[in-house]
Design a protein that fits this description.
The complex is a heterodimer. By secondary structure, chain A is of the alpha/beta class. Chain A has twelve helices and nine strands. In chain A, strands 1, 2, 3, 4, 5 and 9 form a six-stranded mixed β-sheet that branches. Chain A is globular, with a radius of gyration of 20 Å. Chain B is of the alpha/beta class. Chain B has two domains: about 180 residues, no CATH class; about 120 residues, no CATH class. Chain B starts with a strand and ends in a 13-residue tail after the last helix. The relative contact order of chain B is 0.16. Classes of the chains: A alpha/beta, B alpha/beta. The interface between A and B is large, with 46 and 44 residues.
Chain lengths: ~325, ~350
């Protein structure tokens, strides 16, 4: 995936020079392994800092919310779907954007990779489909496929759905992946088992709200957890309040989530937050045949009414 | 006090023994990382870690802490009177504190324990605690303690420093509290004099393993407003998502928010860690927010740690170089880079670009 970068820089420089955009949002190399930093390029010099590799898992649509001016943005499949969602939800105008589409073969999972080794991972090098991970006294080369973030491993929209220009040839979409295997497992649990499962899942949460703040969908001017009149939810480490935050946030994303995995990627405690959003994605698929962010011309099922909407759940 | 040698057997026996005198906290592997927790009677601290994911600050200063209870029942004679919760702390021993995290306690103490004000919750917990440090043999890639006022064998903030050499441990008592702990553990074997030079070598090697650093020498002499108005804040803040990760994982971040929670006719007044990264932190009742833009919040965090604190106390920076905020920041904001930028900033000769937005 590293081969895209020359083309990305060429496009970014061109659209900036031609005055098509005032800025380009992309990634620059981070100061720790597997961590690239969202970056705003406005000059040839800052365009030169742009990078593209398998550590670009954050969702750049998050940086578009209500932004003024004309913006170039580098978008892999999931970013492009969130850009579509942003346009539909009036958080940005399509004609403000020049979307540089990047066909994606998945991003690697820094939580998983760090957990694989006893020693600290000090260097991660990417070459084609192999990733070499090294630290003090160890070095191992593994195939990227084994190291993919879980959302990337089951992704069926690797190619951008909306773009002005592509930085590389479209890639083959993954077929026959069981998108919802993890959800099916939880669905099979009894109510008590589910409760315990979620309790354990969320027990490390420190309420830093990184999951919410990395999510392009979470743009409410005041989040319900920050409201004080009325105060919907307590602010302490009380497990009920922690669960309330996560469950309600997931419901606010129903029918809008593109499973970009940013919430999980940014969690400092490594909590599998997608366990919640993925279930709602599955429900939207089952009930409405809907996947978020695929078309600028269709509104999400939960903000429209159709006479043939399923209603069997009303009893 | 001379160095005490502790073999594995007497380590286990000593830890078990001190549990009758202290509540003993130590690092335990939970899921993928080590975290400090109160050890059960048969539980041992697991010393096989570089550092814990979260610092031990929450043992002295819990993320959520009840301070008062109250009743809203008119029939209750104490109706609407805030009653302080019992705040008596039995002795605690915190085992396996890394020197960086240890230095954080005296730093935080400057805020919570002054001649004018004492935060009774923090002070009582702190005074009840004995800090048993564990020297670092090798640094993480993000450690910069040697340029942040301590080092892998740093002693400030500790009562005992333990140095691990293979299966053998050496304990150096630093304070009277430390002597009492070693005595309670029943460790009495004095180490050979030859160990001293070996430990010096280990210390030198550990210090050499630290590859990262910050420069802080010019921070004090900078003009506050020039730093405040420096042109780099917007660029540095661009990637920030304003989550609370950096502040919550930081051993020296001390801010809290007070909340009342009422259930029926009774309630509690508690405090919870707060984060200057959140817009809510400075949100006024009027609706005005003096730190409305995220770059202002990012600037506040670094100005507090690297300038306001430096000016107020003249004791160096409010950072111990543990590197947690660097490792765990989801968008790679790196305090080393920002500190160096602040330290080298020259307003007079700056080619000050106007940041875009």
């Amino acid at each position: 995936m590293t081969q895209y970068i020359d083309k990305i820089k060429e496009i970014a420089n061109r659209v900036l020079t031609e005055g098509k955009v005032e800025m380009v949002i992309g990634f620059r190399k981070g100061s720790v392994p597997m961590m690239n930093q969202p970056h705003l390029a406005t000059s040839a010099e800052s365009v030169d800092e742009l990078v593209w590799d398998s550590n670009c898992g954050l969702n750049l649509a998050n940086y578009l919310t209500d932004k003024k001016g004309t913006i170039g943005i580098i978008a892999k499949g999931c970013d492009s779907r969130n850009i579509v969602t942003h346009v539909i939800e009036n958080k940005i105008k399509r004609d403000q954007l020049y979307i540089i589409g990047v066909p994606c073969t998945g991003m690697i999972d820094h939580h998983k990779i760090n957990a694989m080794f006893d020693g600290e991972v000090l260097n991660v090098e990417e070459s084609g489909d192999s990733i070499t991970i090294s630290g003090n006294g160890f070095s191992e080369t593994l195939s990227k496929q084994e190291l993919l973030a879980e959302n990337c491993a089951v992704c069926s929209h690797r190619n951008p759905v909306e773009y002005d220009e592509l930085a590389g040839d479209l890639v083959e979409e993954q077929k026959d992946v069981d998108q919802y295997a993890s959800v099916t497992k939880v669905e099979a649990l009894s109510a008590d088992e589910k409760f315990n499962y979620f309790e354990d899942l969320l027990s490390p949460c420190i309420r830093c709200y990184a999951c919410r703040n990395a999510c392009p969908l979470c743009y409410c001017p005041t989040c319900f957890v920050d409201e004080s009149r009325p105060q919907w939810v307590g602010k302490s480490q009380d497990p009920t309040d922690v669960k309330t935050f996560h469950l309600l946030r997931a419901y606010h994303c129903a029918g809008r989530c593109t499973d970009c995995g940013a919430c999980e990627r940014v969690c400092p405690m490594g909590i599998k937050i997608r366990e919640f959003t993925k279930k709602l994605n599955k429900d939207c698929q089952d009930l409405y045949g809907w996947e978020a962010g695929l078309s600028l011309d269709e509104r999400p099922p939960l903000d429209t009414f159709k006479t043939d909407d399923p209603d069997e759940f009303i009893k | 006090m001379t160095l005490i040698k502790i073999d594995q057997q007497s380590w286990t026996a000593g830890i078990e023994k001190v549990k009758s005198d202290y509540r003993v906290f130590g690092p335990v592997k939970e899921k993928n990382d080590h975290e400090f927790k109160l050890l059960d009677q048969d539980e041992m601290p697991d010393l096989n870690y570089q550092n814990t994911r979260l610092s031990p600050k929450s043992i002295i200063y819990p993320q959520s802490q009840v301070m008062f209870t109250y009743s809203l029942d008119e029939n209750d004679e104490d109706c609407r009177i805030m009653k302080e919760v019992e705040n008596v702390k039995s002795p605690m021993a915190i085992i396996g504190v890394r020197p960086c995290d240890a230095l954080a306690f005296p730093i935080v103490r400057r805020n919570f324990d002054t001649p004018e004000y004492q935060d009774t919750y923090w002070v009582k917990a702190y005074e009840a605690s004995t800090f048993i440090g564990l020297a670092c043999s090798s640094a993480c890639g993000t450690c910069f303690c040697t340029s942040a006022g301590t080092g892998p064998f740093g002693e400030e903030g500790l009562d005992v420093l333990i140095i691990a050499d293979g299966d053998d441990l050496y304990a150096k008592s630093i304070t009277g509290k430390g002597n009492a702990f070693i005595q309670a553990a029943g460790w009495t074997t004095e180490a050979d004099a030859s160990v001293d030079s070996k430990i010096d070598e280990m210390k030198t090697a550990a210090e050499a393993s630290i590859s990262a650093s910050v420069t802080t020498d010019k921070l004090k002499d900078k003009t506050t407003l020039e730093l405040y108005d420096a042109p780099f804040w917007e660029e540095e803040a661009f990637s920030c998502i304003n989550c609370g990760t950096c502040t919550y994982v930081c051993p020296t971040c001390w801010c809290f928010d007070v909340q009342d929670e009422t259930h029926g006719k009774s309630g509690i007044r508690m405090r919870n860690w707060d984060s200057c990264m959140s817009p809510l932190f400075t949100y006024h009742a009027s609706g005005h927010n003096p730190r409305d833009a995220k770059y202002q919040r990012v600037r506040q965090r670094f100005m507090h740690k690297l300038k306001y604190y430096v000016d107020k106390y003249d004791k160096g920076i409010q950072c111990v170089g543990c590197g947690r905020c660097i490792r765990l920041c989801p968008v790679n904001i790196d305090i080393r880079k920002i500190c160096n930028k602040m330290n080298s900033y020259d307003a007079a000769n700056c080619v000050c670009e106007t940041p875009s937005s």
